[in-house]
Structure formats: C-alpha cells, structure tokens
Amino acid sequence: MSHVDISGWYNSLQQEFRSNSSKIEKISRRSEYWRKSNLDIVSDFVYDSSDTDINKQKGTCLYEPDLTIHGDNLEFMNKQSNQISSIMDVIADEQSFAKNYFGRLEEKSQKRIPRPLARDNTLDPKVGFALSFSDCLKNPLVIHNKTNTSNSNCFQRNLIVIKENVEVTIIETGNNLSVFNTVTEIYLEKNAKLNYLDFTGENNIFPKICHKFCDMAENSSFNHFGLKLNTKATRTEIELHLNGKGINTSIANVSLLNKKNHFSDENVLINHNGFECKSRQVFKSVLENDCTSIVRGKIYVAPEAQKTDGYQSSRSLLLSENSKFFCKPELEIYADDVICSHGSTSSSLDRESLFYLLSRGVHKSKAKEMLVIAFISEALEEIESEDIKAALSNYIENWISSFFNE
Amino acid sequence: MLKIDNLKVSLEEEEKQIIKGLSLSINPGEFHAIMGPNGSGKSTLSSVLAGKDGYTVDSGSVTFEGRNLLEAEVEERAALGIFMAFQYPIEIPGVGNMNFLRTALNSQRKTRGQEELNAADFLKLVRAIAKDLEISDEMMKRPVNVGASGGEKKRNEILQMCLLEPKFVILDETDSGLDVDAMKLVSKGVNNFSSSSRSFLVITHYQRLLNYIVPDFVHILVDGRIVDTGDKDLALHVEETGYKDFL
Ligand SMILES: Nc1ncnc2c1ncn2[C@@H]1O[C@H](COP(=O)(O)OP(=O)(O)OP(=O)(O)O)[C@@H](O)[C@H]1O
Ligand SMILES: [Mg+2]
After folding, report:
1. For chain B, N or C: smaller number of CB within 10 Å?
2. What is the tally of structural domains in chain B?
3. Which atom of ligand 1 is nearest to the CA of B54?
4. Ligand 1 atom having least distance to the Cα of B36
C-alpha cells in the first residue's frame, strides 16, 4: 500500500467524519432507500482481473479526452486542463482552495438520505480531480476514465467549483472498470452554469455507485445527463440544493438494458430552497429480458421556495415480460404557491406504431430500433448543446443495432 | 394478381367472426371499389391483407401472384408490393417523417435485392412527390403524422404510396375527411399512379371519389360477405337508396 500525504485540514475532517459515521444507517434490504435495489452491487462485488473482456471494454468515446484517469493516475492531454488538479494533491495541500469545500456537501447530503458509501469515499479517496473554474470554457472538458487492471475497487473523488458567471460543460467518457464508488461534489456560484454529461460504463460488467451532490447559488443552472448502455449494475445518487432564486436544473437519464440481470438504479433528490426555481427530471428506461430499472425522484420544497416549478417524468419501455420497472416519485411540499407534476408509465412497444412501420416494409429489428430511439428522444432533448445531442443520438443509433441483433 | 377464396376471419380476442366467406379476384390493372355499411368488415379485410395481428383466419386462402399471402410477414408483404393506406393513419412521435420514408424505401429495396437509394436521390424523389400533393417541407420535417390534420394525414398516405411504388394498393376510406381540393389532388395522384400492371382496392362510402377514379368493379360488402357486384352504376344506386336492398 502506498503512503498518502495528507494535510492538517483533511486530517481533522477525516477524524470528525469518522466519528460521525456510526450515525449513518447502513445499507440493508430493510432500508427504505435500498428496498428495490440489487444489494449485490455492494456486497457481492468481486473484481476479477483475469477477465479477458476488460480490455475490449473501452466504453463510450465520443470525443478526444482532455484528461484521462488511468487507474489512479491522472494524465493531462490538453491545456484546457490547467485549472484541474489531482484530488490526492489537493488533500495533501494545506493551502488548497478545496479545504472550504471538500466533504461539506457529502455531509449535507446525509441529512435526508443515509449514504454510507459516500462517507466511505470521503474517508478514503484514491483518485479523482479537483476543478475550480473562474473562466468559461470554450469547448467541453472531456474526462476519460480508463481501466487499470492493477487498481481495482477504488474510490474516485471529484470536486468541481464553478465561479460566478462561468459556464462549463463536462463530458465523462470511457469506462470505469476499476472505479467502484465515486463522489463528485459540485459548487455553483451565482449565475454559474454546469452541463454534465456522464457517458461512462457502456457494457461495463462491474458495478458502479455514483454520487453527485450539488450546491447551487442564485440564478445558477445544472444540467445532468446520464447514459447507461447495457451497464451491468449502477446506482446513481444525485442530490441538489437550490439555495437562491431563479435556479434552473435538469436531470435526465437514459438506460438501455437487455443483458442478463442488468439493472440501473437512479435516485434523485432536489431540494428547492429558493424562490422561483425550476427543476426537471426526465428518465427513460428501455428494458428487455430480466433487466430492472429503478427510479426514485424526490422533490422537496421548503416553505420559502414559492413559485417552485418541478417536473418529473419517468417512463419505461418494457420489451419483454420479465423486465421490471420500479418508480417512486415523491413530493414533499411546504410552500403553497408551487407547480409540481410527475408522471410515470410503463408500456410495451406500441403495436399500432410497429404495424405502421412494418406495413411500409421497414424490417422488424429496424422498426423496433426506430421506436426505441423515438421513446428516448424526450430525454435527449434535455441536452442543451445541439452538437452534443446530435453526436450522441448518432452514437446511440449505431449502438442500438447491436442491442437488437444479438 | 390477388385471389381471395372463401375467406373467414375472426377476432383473436373474441369469438367473433367478421369476414364470413369472402371471395374476390383482382387482375393486374383492375380497379375495384368496396362499399358497405359501417362495421361490415371492410377495414378488417384490408388489415388481414396487410398482415395485421389480432385476427384468426378460420378458413379460406389469399394468394398474391401465386404466393400464399397469409404466411408472409407484414414487411415481406410490403416488399412484395402490397400497400394499404390506413383509414386512420397514426402519429408516431419521435420518428422523423423523412427518416421513416427513407428507411421504408430502402428496407424494401434491400428485401428485393435492389441497391439502396442514396440521400440525394431520395430527397429529389420525395420532394417531387410532395410538391405534386402540395405537402409542405415543414410537414415533411415533422415526426410521422404528428400534428397533421385528418386530410393531411391522408395525403401523407398517398405520398408513401407514390414513393414505395406498390403493385397492389388498398385505399381504406382515403377520401373520407378530404376537402374538395384535396380530393382532386389525391385522385390525380392515384390516377397518375395507376398503370396496366397495378391494381387497386378502394374502400369508400362515397360515390364522389368514383367520379374521379372510375372503378371497373363495385362490390357491396355486408356483414362480412360480398352480396353484390356491379359496375360504377351500382355505386350510384347505393348513393340513392342506401344499403336496405342488400340487408
Ligand atoms: N380489434 C377489434 N376489436 C374488437 N372489435 C373489432 C376489432 N376489429 C374490428 N372489430 C369489429 O369488427 C366489425 C368490423 O369492423 P371494421 O372496422 O372492419 O368495419 P368497417 O367496415 O371498416 O367499418 P367503417 O365503415 O365504420 O370503417 C365491427 O363490428 C368492429 O367493431
Ligand atoms: Mg373501416
């Protein structure tokens, strides 16, 4: 085991957090937050480095990376990345900007939902990046996660701070075979904007738990888009704190699963604490065989959060009878002047639409593909950048033929 | 070209026979019209010919150019040259009209072992057809039929027909819901499209369409059976007296 240098502030944080850890409810089937989930994701995880498939699993690579996370090494490829440092350097640095941020959102996000795995991560990070942007980025920052077979089961820890009036797009690509548990803390100052697109994990056979906690100041916006292309087992926990007026946020996810027993488990909690904030949640799951998708989206509206506009839509397309979709939309509202809506549906492929396409000669597998693409398009629409949206749609259209043709 | 012999069809879910022994023979170049009261089984017949599921063929046979049609998959029938214009064309949100048309055309070509049409040639072809039918570019860019009016949807069906160039066309009440001008456009489209090798089976409630498209035969379908066959004068007779003579 390598020796890790740590700073005084991180040392005291560790001690404080460690002593509080016992108060965090452990993961169990009885826990409200894991009832429908596949607990194998935490208990039965065995990393088998002899698995020959590992190197084939490059993951979704739409763009050239600016930063590659290779096992526990960070490789910078582009000068766009000079505002990025390694999280391991950050926690060793007495003067780091991170000392006012690190761990604070994790701690706050334990308030309503116990997140013991996030706490484990805080106490023992192994790799990750810290970004503090005080200027807009012209192009998306592309972070590529790469397998490193020698380093398994590692905790990735990231910190993102976006200063006032700064707009940034981050795209995470590649695969994270060696990463099991990630925590990303995100701080958006006034008027800041972050578009975060997580394309990692395509065909990933290893489980992954991913936390993203975000603190948002007045007029900031956060758009998160997640993609699970036959990722075996994922649990995503996103919690946002909308702390000022006029905040805008959108959380979208697309899961396409048809391999044996795959599942995706999306958990979102949006805390509306400010006046006139808007949040949107759009989930689309396409499931075949014995795959499962779980969506739990909660909107909490504090008494002072008048004029809240909260929208949530969770829809699944079940392509076989043994695929399962569990959806639990929750609203907890303490303000009186709010609009909150949620809708949830499960359906099979529309027979009339399928017949229409077939009757014009479209082959059956192609017709199914077209209807699946149509089904997920509402979620893709949440992506703001037309370029990224087009590149991603194109990617998925190509990918999806392998979904049906196996 | 198409031969239906003593066909009996029931609904799959209920024990209810809809087509009760129907025979019909259509030769290349012929134009057949079917008229009949609501619920007599006209759309059921067209659905069965197009291959829609939900029906059980109790007995009888359908051959198309010597081939047992009832055994062919829906998309195979399309590639064989069968086209049904829907009585109620559906909307398919999220599927772009152009993408749909190009996929349909190229899928059929592929099935028939023909080369696929490239994007430029396809565009030229589809634009020319759309222009003749006065379908706007904006409509072509939308998802399939989304937001289209009833009449616009019917025109889209005719556009698909012209693009896919089938040998045998079923028009299921394509004339219903069309305004006077659209009716002329559609009939012109159909007349231009007709040829000595193409056949039509046109389901209609109105003699009006038959003024533009003159049928070789008019059949009266009542309660799942053809009860009378004549020429265009039979349609005029029905228009005047209704179906009471046939019930
Ligand atoms: N899927 C179905 N489920 C239940 N009943 C059906 C179904 N399809 C057809 N029917 C019934 O079969 C009968 C024939 O219907 P069909 O649509 O073929 O009539 P049609 O002659 O086309 O009538 P219209 O002139 O109103 O279009 C009707 O009684 C109809 O209710
Ligand atoms: Mg009908």
Report:
1. C
2. 1
3. 1
4. 21
